[in-house]
Amino acid sequence: MCNLYTVRKSAAEVAAHFGVADPTQSNAPEEVYPGYPGVVMREEAGTRLMQSMVWGFPLRLKGMKPEAKPKPVNNIADLSKNMWIGLARKPQWRCVIPVTQFAEAEGEKGRKTRTWFGVKDQPVFGWAGLWRISDEWGPVYSGVMTDCNEAIRPVHDRMPVLLMPDEYDRWLHGDFDDALAFQNRCFPHDLITMERTDEPWVKRKAAANAELLL
After folding, report:
1. How far apart are CA 21 and CA 92, in angstroms?
2. CA–CA distance, 108 with 147 (Å, rounded to integer)
3. CA distances from 84 to 29, 36, 80, 87, 163 (A)
4. What is the band of 210 on the pLDDT scale with cuts at 50, 70, 90?
5. In Å, how far are 11, 113, 121, 130, 147 from 153, measured between CA atoms?
6. Which of 151, 166, 123, 120 is nearest to 19 (CA)?
7. What is residue 207's predicted lDDT score, i.e. its pLDDT?
8. Class of CATH domain 5-57+67-213
9. Band of the pLDDT at 25, cuts 50, 70, 90?
10. Which InterPro entries does the record match to this protein (predicted)?
11. CB-based contact 189:150 (threshold 8 Å)
12. What is the C-alpha to C-alpha distance for residues 101 and 9, in angstroms, rounded to an integer?
């Protein structure tokens, strides 16, 4: 499960990487948490654009009070599930999430630290995602997950579905079988970088949100 990632590049640098002509200025922070703003790349009428959205599809759990804030479903475990399949079958609801690093928690409970992962020779890389318009938060997005590779296995058994630049078009335009193929493949372990740190996992309230994987 991925509940924290960074975008430590300027809007112009991110736009240039994804072939977007008009960089979008966003209020998204460098560290992105579930339920808070992030930026995605999607296509509309054949044109790539960057758009600010909330990370996580709002989900209201049974027994929640009407005034309670929905929980953000920020990770997608299985594109074939009812919650996702309708969107995954339609390329217009696919997006690519810009990432510079993503983090997993490592260590003893109460003393967990951040271990950061990246992609070699890719200062910015893509994470396959889906988006939609929600009544609660407007445009929202969630990232597709898959089984981990050997580089990530010491820390976690899941990882984001990572995309290389020459794969963005296939994710955005491919059929449902193409989408499933990305989720079912094993991303090359030798392309992953890992940085263990002594940074506390929970630094602020946003990181302590209830994150959901469906």
Report:
1. 19
2. 23
3. 27, 21, 7, 6, 19
4. very low
5. 32, 16, 21, 25, 9
6. 166
7. 41
8. alpha beta
9. confident
10. SRAP, SRAP-like
11. yes
12. 11
